[in-house]
Amino acid sequence: MINIDFKDRRPIYQQLMDSVEDLAAKGLLKANAQLPSVRQLAVDLSINPNTIQRAYAELEKRGVLYTVPGKGSFLSDNRKQLLEDKENKLLQALRDIFAQALELGLSLDDLLARAKNSFKEVTHD
Amino acid sequence: MINIDFKDRRPIYQQLMDSVEDLAAKGLLKANAQLPSVRQLAVDLSINPNTIQRAYAELEKRGVLYTVPGKGSFLSDNRKQLLEDKENKLLQALRDIFAQALELGLSLDDLLARAKNSFKEVTHD
Amino acid sequence: MINIDFKDRRPIYQQLMDSVEDLAAKGLLKANAQLPSVRQLAVDLSINPNTIQRAYAELEKRGVLYTVPGKGSFLSDNRKQLLEDKENKLLQALRDIFAQALELGLSLDDLLARAKNSFKEVTHD
Amino acid sequence: MINIDFKDRRPIYQQLMDSVEDLAAKGLLKANAQLPSVRQLAVDLSINPNTIQRAYAELEKRGVLYTVPGKGSFLSDNRKQLLEDKENKLLQALRDIFAQALELGLSLDDLLARAKNSFKEVTHD
DNA sequence: GTGGTCTAGACCACG
DNA sequence: GTGGTCTAGACCACT
Fold first, then answer.
1. What is the dihedral of CA A101, A103, A109, A110, to 10 degrees?
2. Which residue from C15, C20, C17 is spatially nearest to C5, judged by alpha carbons?
3. Is A9 on the interface with B (CB under 8 A)?
4. Residue nearest to nucleotide E2 (CA to C1')
5. d(CA B30, CA B97)
6. In the 8-state DSSP scheme, what is residue A61?
7. What's this model's pTM, rounded to 2 decimal places?
8. Cβ atoms of residues C72 and C60 within 8 Å
9. Is the CB of D51 under 7 A from strand F?
10. SS3 helix, strand, coil % of chain C, rounded to 5?
11. Maximal C-alpha separation, chain C
12. What is the pLDDT of residues C34-78, one digit of tens each?
């Protein structure tokens, strides 16, 4: 369910956070479900517990999960908010791309059409 | 022409490289035009000369510029190649966004339409 | 009467102690009234009996309640003392706030007036 | 300027954050001033660099400081915002106290008057 | 020199 | 068992 890519430039704790957020946003983890314990996940992923701890702590500050000391970590009930946030990020990323295309003098519609085509090819597998 | 943002997360040498590439891709710097000397740019931007040196060295390795010992650094004549590269990067970025939208169950057309709309509003200034 | 908030940062045994002390100070629990048994409360609140045990033990150490082996736990007759303690805590908290306001250069009277106003608004329900 | 109390219950990194925020809010540290380096402060306070690093990282996320990798950490220019935040925290703390006093049946004006009096005595030194 | 990440291992509080 | 904090020491990227 959670994969770490050691070749990825992003730090491990960041990859972890993204994984958990994705799982939550996609609904693969239900609200109030208990997450693997820091130590267990550390063993499973062959990662130092401190690194897991850091990811969980940041996710708690962001409201993605809540933690009950001595009991464990549990997913928050905010999938809707998560989805909204991710949607806004995608929108902002698109706008940034649009701006760059504009500056380079590229046709936006042409670019989008080509992106769609090559995307379909890839996902036809 | 070249601005450095110290609060930007990207390293300074990276920002420098991006700036030069952008200027070249947009045609604001012509082929074979002489670039500011390492020392001059270091003074202008209040940056360590080593940092400028690194950026120039990387850009030379990428073929964006060439250096004539004792004379200075000059822009290569490869605007076409640069534009193509940037276009491919944008396409790849779009495909990544498409994939994420798909995973989140968002409507791609809807997302694109909204991005276009909010983009137009912003750029109507 | 007693509520536990698992998302509260305070440990559960602490929340329990605070609840009992509050009920006693407010007079909602009379002197010598019998408290729920450890087992009963553990079931009611879905909490580990050890946690209840710890809270009761601490409360007994503080003189808030007394335990008759084989019969149960009963509230001590010290509401006056409890009230005084809580009052002193509030006074100390106020003094701390005053000190902080002073350090930040805020007007104490102004701050108090605004706190009163916004407090009244909230409690006018 | 920065003191750590090992008897304090608050974790060290938390004390550190509070200290820096206080210095910034009180204006004892000017905007864009460079903070001691992680390693230097670690030596000065006899604390592990990781702990300093953690405090600085959190302060950066809160916008209290910004960091230029390879150069150092610098105070952000947001004293006004900091002061406002601290003021709101004090207001909220006051409202909480008011609510508790109300529940205990204490006279708010009486409580405030006594707090003021005892506060003056202490600060008359 | 600077900050950022990670590991290993320890100790504490909580349930 | 759980999470939270801290130390020691290492390595990396950046200036």
1. -70
2. C15
3. no
4. D70
5. 33
6. H
7. 0.91
8. no
9. yes
10. 60, 5, 30
11. 58
12. 999 999 999 999 999 999 999 999 999 999 999 999 999 999 999
